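Hi W., the pyridoxal-5'-phosphate complex you wanted:
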Amino acid sequence: MIDEKLLMIPGPTMVPERALQEGSKQVLFHRSPEFGKLFAEVNEGLQYVFQTQNPVLTFPAVGTGGLEATVANLFSPGDTILSVITGVFGKRFATIAQNFGLNVYKIDFPWGQAAEPDMIKEQLEQHPEIKAVFVTHNETSTGVVNDLVAIGEIIHQFNVLYVVDAVSSLGGIDLQTDAWDIDVVITASQKALMSPPGLTFISVGSRAWKAVEKAKIPKYYWDFINARKYLDKNPPQNPYTPAVTSIAMLNESLKMMQEEGLDAIFKRHQRLAHAVRESVKRMGLKLFAASNCYSNTVTAIIVPEGIDGDVVRKIMSENYNVVVAGGQADLKGKIIRMGHMGYVNEDNILQALQALAAALQDVGYKGNVEEGLIKAKELLG
Ligand code: PLP
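Structure:
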């Protein structure tokens, strides 16, 4: 038995007991009425968290699979897209598109900053052949949230599809798929949706379905049209064997989210994230993201000069049982990323901040960590 640690990474995240219990039940037959009922509930729950009337497709895969499925279903080789890159995950989406033979224009924004809608507009004006714009809602590698409403106002002036990677935001930060008229939204089970890794979800709107009908990139497993055909059955089904147990666990997490209500969930994320930011600032630490684009699901904290962030993380995990993530790519060792999304409460945040403070002191950090903890208690009390 592995000792249970508090996971404060930006996914996978802690799974509530109610969902864990579903995971310990016997496996269901995927064509049975019982599973049909359960999958129908899940689809309603997904439409609730996506804030959409669109069908939301479920595939057994992680988020990267959802990104790849989107590329394979919407385009033909040689199509052109614009990729808005604010960190590791924006870059990954662009690479997937390139690997499938698309022409990819990229706008690389400095890491730690949000995308500027005007620069997207410039590219769309210069390149009328662009068929879609890819945007990462919440850039998990830098703790930056992009303004989907402002970007949408630009995108909707052009005849292009608006495609959003919401893997680390959906269910933790407001994303109104229908009201904001976003054609495709992709997420995964293991972040704000409080479920284990292994499921990806893709909301596909009516304009996007027209593109799907024309798309020529080969696919079989990922085929949206086939997935939709089965989803439209009564009760809804999957073309192949779905991840029945993961879906049963997800159902419980989605029920909990509906009980809490999206507004309350977003406010909880906002309150906890604010407490993390204010606390670490009082400890004398700096945040990596610019102050106009702080994420409410993950905070990137700059490690002070002379301290190795990976050593701090190791101490946090081994001595204080709290797991946080490090920096990716060029940011390795330089930042610590604390996830605070999904099944997370005030006590978890305090525990994580206490572990951070203690580990920093252990490596000789001289900042006033106590002041940071007092601030956190004040904001969370
Ligand atoms: N997009 C974003 C914004 C992410 O944060 C992640 C994972 O952290 C992914 C895509 C990839 O998801 P997965 O690890 O489930 O493949």
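The longest strand covers residues 130-136.

W.
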